[in-house]
Protein 1
Amino acid sequence: MAGLSHIKRRNLILMGILAFIALITSGCSSKSGDDEGFSLRRSYTLRSGTQLQGDQVVLAADIELESESQIAGDVTLTSNDITLNGTITGDVVAVSDKMIVGADAHITGDLVVCAKDFQLSDQAQIDGKVKEECTDSGTVSAANVIESVWKSWRDSSLFRISSVFVGSLLFGALAALSALAFPVPLVRMSESVQRSPVRAGGIGFLTILVAVGLTVVYVISLLLVLPIVLLPFVMVGWFVVILFSLLGWVALAVPLGIYLMRMVGMDRQPRMVAAAVGGIVLGLLLRLWSIFWFTAWIGVLATIILGSIGLGAVILTHVGTKPYPRARHNLTTAP
């Protein structure tokens, strides 16, 4: 009976994972179709009478929004030639060689354009501001355009979901490579996380506070005209903190991956596989909260707590060179 229940539990976990992936995939697919989301093609035409809901990101060689077409949301267009005659109830960001805003165009928000040849009809209705974010040579002003594109993308659910999955996959790959390159130090750090999470968390949090405090003091010291020669030391210090933090996250991913693999009856897999699984799941568990603004604080709080534990484990084990807690030696002597 115990074996049967274990099999049922394993099947339920696998079915749950597959259902979750299918749900997210279907959500992303619906966002990337013709009606909403992201479009990547050779030529894109929004026909007259067509109405789209939601923010749109279009990348194509030629883009045309015909008269009486409508998009309810912010629009980002990247193309060689853009012809805009439709109605857009939002902001428009366009990067192209040539852009024509026709007489039938109506944009309720701002129009941000970077184009070598920009033609704006006098009859076009632009309720917001028209901003040409290019230098005099006609090349893209990178900072301005990136800022505008980021503003239009950051509120897109497709962008947020994609960033969650891409970030989790990248962290899973990093965890797997770390488990392959540093197996013994990683085991010591992971054991420290499991045996002394409170102490590790306290040490890690204090380390972050000290690093932030010293950085603030250094910034203030620049206002007092103290030597800027300390800047390399500040940069090296933060590099070490970031590196140790990454190792700490990997140390957290390994035991989580081992636990999950054991739950589905695959506990005999290489540690690298467990690290990859743990890294992906840990990334998803932390980053999924950022999809919705009203739950973002949960992800931030969990990141601070878990990040402090991982960083503390790295410090307590001297970057995995010594186990922690260390074995106690018998100090009693014979009479």
Protein 2
Amino acid sequence: MNANRIIKYSLIVFFSLYASNTFAQNVPIEPCGYKYEIEKIIQQKPNFISQQNAWYAQAYQMYSELKSAKRRIIADTEFYEIPVVFHVIYNTAAQNISTALILSQLNELNLDFRKLNADTSRIRSVFKPLASDVHIQFKLATQDPNGNPTTGINRVSTSTTTFATNIYGSYSDDMKNTAAGGQTAWNPARYMNVWICNMEYPNYVGITYGFATPPTGSPNWSQFQSVTKDSTDPKSGVVLHYKVVGKNNPLAPANYKEGNTATHEFGHYFGLRHIWGDAANLSLGCSVDDGIFDTPNAKDKNYSCNPNLNSCTDPTNDKPDMTENYMDYALDGCAAMFTREQAFMMRYVLNNFRTGLPLRNIVFDTIMEYPNPIVTISPNPVKSGNDLNITININDDNAIFISSLIDNNGKLVVKRSIKANEKTILLTSPYAAGVYYLIVSDINGRIINKQKIILSY
């Protein structure tokens, strides 16, 4: 790792410059409110950046270890599904945007996060190997916090004409407060809250089209300390200006018609920084980065798709600025990808700081390493008083297999060795009712059978 890349973790000095400014000076003049949100967090948690750097480093160490490990599954087919509620806070009919636009936005998010977007054709050859399926997708919530059916779209009429507070794009967070004319978040440990509202000030010279609350529950922890799990901050979520929601929104300004503003802000919600690192000024630009190694260093934000732009020169493996990245400002016509390490970082955040949100869906690929093994598992469903009986019939009495019971969040519950041609009892009574997966593999970890198991007590 060269010196310039080590600097990626040395962001504390830069962000301390933020903290030394008075809060009154923090006036948004950019379409994304990320810097403003970070400044507000630092006012309450002065050590936040050092804590964030710590889990970036921990995540990268884990990524490096997994990258060098031998995979035994043919394809990575697991993905996370996040329940989303859209709170439409409207004062006029135009602000009460259509369900069709919201559904188109949800579709664009799923295309972007699963690398299914047609825009991948924009990615230059130098970056194509880095483009990644994030394995995160989104669905509308189907139950409200009281257990009642919901469409996942919550419409709230308000007397507030705009949530911007001045012509430069500064804003309040009243859209997140029912008493202030908005809508208080649904439990942020169970729902991803998205507020759609008016962020436009009359005769504005700057406007914030969206902002997100990054995960703030991470304590100053080491590998020997527990990690705070769910982020329950009631302000946690994403805010979008109503004119930039959806694909081809007829009210959207130029360069904001592809629905990429939401993709950008969702990236912040899952812990990503801007790829240029938000340096305080251009003289610091190339010495401050985003903490992600496979995004090239960039001096500042980019609004264009200039393929020749290379604002920072790394001593080794130098690459041009990644204007194709969703975490830059060059959106329409440019944005088309998250990198592998950005994707891993977002999954890391789900596994460590937003753990109540996702349903982890897993599809295991079967490798028939042995000829026609006959795996018998019964009963299924498993009812009260019963346990699983497992038998593997094969023409090799000395063969040993491993059975792994995995819960619906992808966590290993129990593991047992099984000798061929002998019945093995796997106790299930200690575990809660629900959906599990039983994976049978050989001693080298190669999967020969998988089954969904229902524990129904």
